[in-house]
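Just curious. Invent one:
>
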Amino acid sequence: MNIQIFGKSKCFDTKKAERYFKERRIKYQFVDLMRFGLSGKEFDSVLRAIGGIDNLIDWNAKSQEITNMKYMDDHIAKEDKVFDDPGLMKTPIVRNGKQATVGYCPEVWATWE
């Protein structure tokens, strides 16, 4: 198992995800999303695994950009906007190879073990 956690350092759900893997003694790699972001291939892999850009966007964030994206129909434009601004992504993004989850999903992670 090769777990990667992409998250924000001040995100409560990211800290819960880290604690989940620590308690089970599962090694993981933490990547600060705001500092390093996702590479293009990682971004595409996550989008395929979670079912599209609408599942990756943090719709609850209080941001004018999020409000504007609610009315956008162009998925490519949404992807470009989110790729350029990782702060718009819902965290944590947890990857295990080609599998990925967005948000705190211990019920899915339990099936990876």
Helices lie at 12-23, 33-36, 40-50, 64-69, 75-84, 106-112. Strands lie at 3-7, 28-32, 93-96, 99-102. The chain has six helices and four strands.
